[in-house]
Amino acid sequence: MSYGSAGGARSVEQLRLVMGELQVADVRAQVMLSVFTDFEKSGAFKPAAHHEPALKSLLDQLVAWGVALRELRSGRISAASQLAA
Fold this sequence. Notes:
Blueprint: E1 2-4, H1 9-21, E2 32-34, H2 52-74, H3 79-84
C-alpha cells in the first residue's frame, strides 16, 4: 500500500526492485491512496470505497504467497531442493 499525490506508485516500483534483490517475495497488486482524496484535512485516514477491489486482490495474492511458502517455512523442504527440481 502506498500514498502520495500520484498514489505513491513510483515509490512502490522502486521498492519492488530493492526487494527483488533481497529475494523477498512480493505481490503485484497495489492499493494506491491519494493524499488529496483518501485523507481528510485533519489528516484522518478515510479511504474511498473504490479501493476495495484492489485491496481484495492484494490480500488474495498475499494469502497465495503464504500458502505457497508454507512448506519452506516449516523446514520440511529446503529452498535448494526446490530450485534443483
